[in-house]
């Protein structure tokens, strides 16, 4: 039964820093200092960058979901992985125990990406590192009245997205024509947020309007079980596109420092020692 009606809990607009080259522009969709509110999500960055910004670097203890808005993203990892992602493609990474990779713009591209950091519970922080590319054409499309959904992860509107996250999440791109109405159904116990890619949409019974670069967290029933469903009413004021992400809170102590996300500062220090001692392997290079 679908009972819980979601509303916007808080909303804001991304403030961008003009960094120059190679990291042209950066803004926090989910600011890291507010990570306790976003559990299981830690942060989300909206970046424009050229080659040389995110060269070889390590990670441990969390997952990333990188959505390419525009340009070409070259992925290289030290396990021999190499791929190029285009607009609409997504890369999922489980950093697990020891990831070492590079995320670069191709040639002279200025690439525009969204990168979400998704926490891992303590029991999964030492899992094997893995990467998965979800191509635009591999994410199933659901046609709704005057619009469509593209489902990257989780079960939404009767289809299942191809992303193999280690923790239960949903990721949906919603495109609506002007005047369209749509009700998005999510697991009731998922913490969720919206990011506007373009246009204007009204959300919930209160009809709070968001436009491009608007972010909103949503109410949810954290005491519900996974079978409970919730509804979010959406109305497009103009031709619009938004991303909605949701996930089950982990409710553990989180320490995020540099490229690592662990449960204590001692575990962070150990991650730095392990990297310096070569336990993450050699550099990511072709």
Characterization of the model:
- The radius of gyration is 19 Å and the shape is globular.
- It has one domain: Jelly Rolls.
- It has about 290 residues and is mainly β.
- The chain has two helices and 27 strands.
- A hairpin with a 6-residue loop joins strand 3 and strand 4.
- About 5% of the residues lie in helices and about 55% in strands.
- The model has no long low-confidence stretch (mean pLDDT about 95).
- Keywords: Iron, Metal-binding.
Observed structural traits:
RmlC-like_jellyroll, metal ion binding, single chain, Pirin, mainly beta, 286 residues, 53% strand, seven-stranded antiparallel beta sheet, 2 helices, Jelly Rolls
> How many individual helices?
2
CATH class label: Mainly Beta
Low-confidence parts lasting 5 or more residues at pLDDT below 50? Answer: none
Classify the fold: give the CATH topology. Jelly Rolls
Q: What is the first-to-last residue Cα distance?
A: 51 Å
User: What CATH architecture do you see?
Assistant: Sandwich
**Shape category:** globular
The CATH superfamily turns out to be Jelly Rolls
- Structural class category: mainly beta
> In what order do the strands lie side by side in the largest sheet?
2-23-20-25-18-15-14
Overall average pLDDT: 96
The number of domains is: 1
**What characterizes the major β-sheet?**
7 strands, antiparallel
Helical proportion?
Answer: under 10%
Q: Which percent range describes the beta-strand content?
A: over 45%
Count of extended strands: 27
Protein name: Pirin family protein
Keywords: Iron, Metal-binding
Pfam families: Pirin, Pirin_C
Cofactor: Fe cation
